[in-house]
Amino acid sequence: MKPPLLFYFDFSSPYGWLAAQQIEALAAKHDRGVSWKPMLLGAVFKQTGTAPLTMIPLKGDYSRRDIARSARFHGLPEFTLPDPFPIATQAPARLVVWQRTENPERAAVLVKALYRAYFAEHQDISKADIVIAVAARESIDADAARAAIESSAIKDALRRDVDEAIARGVFGSPFVFVDGEAFWGLDRFEQIDRWLATGGF
Amino acid sequence: MKPPLLFYFDFSSPYGWLAAQQIEALAAKHDRGVSWKPMLLGAVFKQTGTAPLTMIPLKGDYSRRDIARSARFHGLPEFTLPDPFPIATQAPARLVVWQRTENPERAAVLVKALYRAYFAEHQDISKADIVIAVAARESIDADAARAAIESSAIKDALRRDVDEAIARGVFGSPFVFVDGEAFWGLDRFEQIDRWLATGGF
User: Fold this and answer.
1) pTM here?
2) Based on the number of CB atoms within 10 Å of its own CB, is B165 exposed (0-12), middle (13-18) or buried (19 or more)?
3) How far is B114 from chain A (nearest CA, A)?
4) Whole-complex ipTM
């Protein structure tokens, strides 16, 4: 099996959510898996000296409209932005970091369940209780999930992941690496498709 | 005839260059024309508090790679970024503002000729002499072109255009309006296509 695509995302990123629904099919088409890499855009924004998209003058107003339109374009006609938005995403990110080693297949299911809880059901997944309830629906023990979210080892592992993401040049969400080649944004999925088909262009 | 698409661009924008080669075919497919709107990203960046793409930490390195890869993806295998980059684009913008009223069809030809001079031939179109030489190839009188570039009326007209662009929410290049709906970037051309086909979605 060829190496998986590295899929970096923040749980507060609507484009990350849309991309999370398409990355596995794109990877599978080319005989690849997906490695799910939750990260924290807040830490990245400190590095790049920028701010959440929706808070930047001019760009903010456009992006609210573009997010909803892009959701409709990708088959989600009912989309509205959750409130609060954006949110802190340490809790869901830690859960995924934990499950990635415990049970990789369930980690993939969890990513989509947590994203859906936030963007489709408007549940505030910055809160550990909400994250644990979403995990319970996927048959994850609540006490074990809480322990993972509060574990220093998991916190450290996430911190290392975020540092590694920044070192690799990740500055937004979604951000995909294909054999070391970086692609930012759902709107680069066509280029990823051709890259995988041709071995680079 | 339905209203034209408003195509806002900066002559120093590589994505604007790629988009300028596709916008007319996209518009014509839906029975539309193109209104060419040169603007100055420098003035916009002051408003949004941001910087040229290639100068932002992390994003800068990525964007240099993405620009070249996107050029290859869109059929320009030989692309390399000009040096100097970015450049001031008042001179070519003024020439287009002038020709847009004098001779709209030639304005469209000029946009592509000036873009090609900079990005394919690596001529520094920030310089009036270069702009005038490019215009001469398109049968524009050199003295008239120089007078236009130095004319206070044309300078004022461009300034008004840029102010209007910012008032409309333009913050990047290319930036397209379809009957008031805003689309940023070449990677939104698929959405523009569907928007024009369906009357909005």
Assistant:
1) 0.95
2) buried
3) 27
4) 0.93
